[in-house]
Amino acid sequence: MTTPSSNDALIGELEAQEARLVLPRFTHDDAWALGSLLVELARERAAPVAIDITRGGQQLFHAALPGSTPDNDAWLARKRRVVERYGCSSYLVGSRFRAKGTTFEASSRLDPDVYAAHGGAFPVAVDGAGVIGVVAVSGLPQVEDHALVVEALERFHTA
Questions:
Q1: Counting Cβ atoms within 10 Å, is residue 3 exposed (0-12), middle (13-18) or buried (19+)?
Q2: How many Cα atoms are found within 13 Å in the side-chain-facing hemisphere of 58?
Q3: Rg of the chain over CA atoms, in angstroms?
Q4: Are the C-beta atoms of residues 125 and 131 closer than 8 Å to each other?
Q5: Cα separation of 35 and 29, whole Å?
Q6: Cβ atoms of residues 31 and 152 within 8 Å
Q7: DSSP notation for 77-107
Q8: Is it the case that residue 112 has pLDDT exceeding 70?
Q9: Calpha distance 151→37 (Å, rounded)
Q10: Confidence of residue 158 (pLDDT cuts 50, 70, 90)
Q11: How far apart are CA 108 and CA 125, in angstroms?
Q12: Does 105 have pLDDT greater than 60?
């Protein structure tokens, strides 16, 4: 079980990731490059994931690696909707509810068949424009899904 101070530290770390990973632009080609980087990282780890990138409601990239299932696509959609609604990562949203001593499912009043505040979906934020899309991974435990997306965004951001 996490303590209030560990919850605060986690939330601070997640907020710092989002503040740091704001892109100067995000084009169709950028979505392909980021998605391809995620595929490369996942293959290096033999991670059975599905990957999805959207911008303005349009799917720009999707990949399903060996071991992933149609259920992963359902998780991608549910996590993506959380980012679209709250404007921050699905892991951060879930962590904020847990920090209040509750869960997203119990307290958000949103249908858990439509929304999932589990790690793995991260906002695509562009400098001067805000959140314009979502990059998401599903197939690993939520902390690992989130970490994979952040690692790819950090590499992409500095490339």
A1: exposed
A2: 7
A3: 15
A4: yes
A5: 10
A6: no
A7: HHHHHHHHHHSS-HHHHHHHHHHTTS-HHHH
A8: yes
A9: 10
A10: confident
A11: 24
A12: yes
